[in-house]
Specification:
two-stranded antiparallel sheet; mainly alpha; Serine Threonine Protein Phosphatase 5, Tetratricopeptide repeat; 9 strands; three-stranded antiparallel sheet; 497 residues
Length: 497
């Protein structure tokens, strides 16, 4: 994995951007006449697809907000912070405040160097990599070639999925023959949703068939991840039949719940039977450009007067659990333990609690290492999520909750040291769906799933409006930025006045 971290650090440093349209990102100045020319060089050429799935400062990539799972404007801030499970944050200006309120209007004014919409050009770049791999004749090991293609198609499919969940279908190039065609690259017409989704499905299915279950290099894409993202796609599109089918495929891979919930997010136990995929963070990283991935969430979750780990915000931190969410837990629920509801400030006298903090401290990734930047891997897919998704799909595919579906949820609850679901919560399809949504919040907070869950269950914006200070946009879909509209893109219908 050290090899991958080094390569990604180099590639991140040489990324440059084009001006507009669907042109590919350009990486350095290597000559296509001489590189790649060997199997190892093709592997190096392919590994650039991991860049958007990194965890670094957003400005380390040239200012393009390139990382889906970065520390700012990544999955926590964009998918969890706007929802009912996290508190508002006002100290760092309107941008942070409006996102935390659940209001996405400011994204329409984002510049080209700030918007995730720019990842449409990463799709073009990945399409080129896929085509080059498919055309390569140097490979003696066809399985290895298919694995590299699988990694590239995993990256393209996952990128398109994330863009879909943020903006709706967006214009992309998945036909390599169109790359370099000025007319095709300038065409920003929104594709039909069914066509866009079918491309994602094809990519993820290919990845699931050709990626190993346990890659030799920890941190590279695997079969379980491909299936998990595919299951999320089907579930969020309300294709519950296919979601259930894929969930059963994941069951067959042998994942299981760990006994201790908190251990999932600690460096010493980050490799386990439950985690399907996590961003591999290097405990030696110190936040510098050439370093590997790092986990700096404690800077964002601890207030600046905390005696053990003074963070960057105060007296409330940028990312905190809303009090409404904190008090929704059963007091016996072990999943509430990473949420700190009070402390004595470093002055030795001031008591911080619900009377003077916007929310509870989220200590899901505890700062246990010797460095300010942590090595805790950032969990992006795990089996508990799959179990809850499968329970939801089974419920939707039947007239009401089955014993199997109830058992899946109760297993997750049992690990958290709380009892089975009450009878009232399994009495009907709707009651069980509501119970699953609550359970997903308690289980998956700070893992970047909540906005999608609220949208799917029809709880946006009502659930968000119930939290103190929240002012959610009517739509949970991010608006296409104005610069892209000026280029010829079409605003998604949810944000059209």
């Amino acid at each position: 994995m050290k090899k991958i971290l080094l390569i990604l650090a180099i590639l991140s440093a040489i990324i440059t951007g084009c001006e507009k349209g669907l042109e590919p990102e350009i990486y350095g100045s290597l000559s296509p006449l001489t590189f790649p020319a060997t199997e190892n060089e093709y592997e190096l050429y392919t590994l650039v697809i991991y860049v958007p799935f990194s965890s670094k400062w957003p400005y380390e990539d040239g200012g393009t907000k390139y990382h889906f799972f970065g520390l700012e404007e990544g999955h926590v801030q964009l998918i969890d912070a706007p929802t009912d499970i996290m508190a508002i944050f006002t100290a760092w200006g309107a941008g942070w405040q409006r996102i935390s309120e659940g209001n996405f209007e400011l994204f329409e004014g984002q510049g080209r160097n700030r918007s995730h919409f720019e990842k449409i050009r990463f799709v073009t770049r990945t399409t080129k990599i896929i085509a080059d791999l498919e055309a390569a004749t140097i490979f003696k090991d066809e399985t290895f070639k298919k694995q590299l293609i699988g990694e590239a198609r995993m990256a393209r499919g996952w990128t398109m999925y994330r863009l879909l969940q943020m903006f709706g279908p967006v214009p992309v190039i998945t036909d390599p023959e169109k790359i370099g065609d000025q007319e095709a690259e300038a065409d920003l017409t929104t594709p039909a949703r069914a066509d866009y989704i079918s491309t994602i499905v094809a990519d993820l299915e290919y990845a699931s068939e050709n990626l190993p279950e346990a890659p030799s290099d920890y941190g590279r894409f695997n079969k379980g991840l491909a299936l998990t993202v595919l299951m999320r796609l089907y579930l969020n599109e309300k294709d519950f039949t296919n979601a259930e089918s894929v969930g059963r495929d994941i069951q067959a891979l042998g994942y299981s719940l760990v006994d201790d919930y908190a251990s999932l997010f600690r460096e010493a136990t980050e490799r386990n039977t439950e985690t399907i995929y996590a961003i591999s963070c290097n405990p030696a990283s110190q936040g510098r450009g050439p370093d590997g991935n790092f986990n700096a969430y404690s800077w964002y979750t601890f207030p600046n007067d905390h005696p053990d780990f003074p963070g960057w915000g105060g007296p409330s931190a940028p990312f905190m659990a809303s009090w409404e969410f904190y008090y929704s837990f059963d007091t016996a629920d072990e999943r509430r333990a990473p949420l700190i509801d009070s402390y004595v400030a470093k002055d030795g006298t001031t008591i911080r609690d619900s009377s003077n903090m916007e929310g509870a401290i989220i200590n899901k990734y505890p700062p246990e290492g010797p460095n300010a930047y942590q090595g805790n891997d950032i969990v992006l897919a795990r089996y508990a999520d799959v179990m809850l998704m499968l329970a939801e799909a089974i419920n939707e595919n039947n007239d009401g909750p089955t014993q199997e579906a109830i058992a899946l949820v109760d297993s997750v609850r049992s690990r958290a040291n709380i009892g089975p679901l009450p009878a009232a919560e399994t009495s009907s399809k709707d009651a069980f769906n509501d119970a699953i949504l609550r359970e997903r919040g308690w289980e998956l907070y700070f893992e970047g799933q909540r906005l999608f869950d609220l949208r799917r269950h029809g709880k946006w914006p009502s659930a968000v409006s119930a939290v103190k200070g929240k002012d959610p946009s009517p739509s949970s879909i991010y608006p296409i930025p104005q610069y892209a509209l000026d280029d010829g893109a079409e605003q998604n219908p949810e944000n059209t006045n």
